[in-house]
What we know:
alpha+beta
Amino acid sequence: xxxxxxxxxxxxxxxxxxxxxxxxxxxxxxxxxxxxxxxxxxxxxxxxxxxxxxxxxxxxxxxxxxxxxxxxxxxxxxxxxxxxxxxxxxxxxxxxxxxxxxxxxxxxxxxxxxxxxxxxxxxxxxxxxxxxxxxxxxxxxxxxxxxxxxxxxxxxxxxxxxxxxxxxxxxxxxxxx
Length: 177
């Protein structure tokens, strides 16, 4: 594991269940089925974070967008209470230094509550209403933005970085391309 590797999480709480429900609905309506080349195994995860610093005791601090905003001090061991996580290596086609630099510049930004609402409205009225506030992030949007900044080709395929879901990050970063 290295700084910049991506952490995909599954939590047991109500918010996590809601995100997984929304991802399944999105896959059904927009991607039509896992047969379209999408690996069904990633759609069970609901949060994404990035390894920051090795604490030397088997634990890491992580970058993530959470209710308090974008943080870099939470411990990996606490990221998915009652759930689980896996670590995916940052794809070789992403510039690790740029990826981490972008994340560092976003620490302290606010959480994107309106982006979450906008994602919900987009499920009902696709591409009709956008309710975002600048300088705010949701977890997957933060990582999608960092991947885009790092030159990762998979990020350029996403039409809207701010509505990318954790499963899409996991899929794109786990492809052997």
